[in-house]
Write the structure tokens for this entry.
Amino acid sequence: MTNSSPSPASPPVGGSSKRQSVGGLLLILAIVIGYAVFQAVAPPDLPRKANDNQTTPSENTSDPSEPSADSIASPDDHSPDEARDPASVPERAARSVETKAAPASSRAATSTTIVKDVVIRDQSGRVVFRGNIDLTATLQRIDRGQRLSFPNDGSVFRNRERRLPSRNEGYYREWVHPTPKLSGPGPQRVVTGAQGEAFYTHDHYRTFKKIR
């Protein structure tokens, strides 16, 4: 009868594989922790260092909607009136245009026009008026284009006597200035020219006096 010695016990297979898996997990965990620590310690602006030499848009670009310093007018570029009230410019221009467009006759009629020491006679030669003649109302009426009921008031004056400067047909018009104590048109007339001039006659076209 032979005696057999017992064979040494082999290490369990399951325990070795467990140690290997635990070691792998520890290695992965160490890598993860190391990466996290690196990210925490690294400066936050490291990714932008590659672009430090590039110019940011805010340094060289400007907003086109904002006016430049050259385009902003200084107060010295305008007169004091314009600086206080810009609308005063178009208003002053409009007034100057109206003044230029107004005929000379309208401007002259705003002042009093008096002819002194006038002697007026009727057709028989009798003196019916002696004194100063105020033509202001008649001149203002002429400027308004208002006519009296006399047929020749506002009609064409043909200058047959040639006592006024020679002009083309229709250039002159005659207007009646009523004479006190006479019911008809009387001998007084105001003759106007197309350019605003005016002449006065107190003796029915025999003599004229330029009044504007």
Summary: Strands lie at 114-121, 127-134, 155-157, 172-176, 189-193, 198-201, 209-210. The two ends are 173 Å apart (CA to CA). Residues 46-62, 67-109 have pLDDT under 50 and may be disordered.
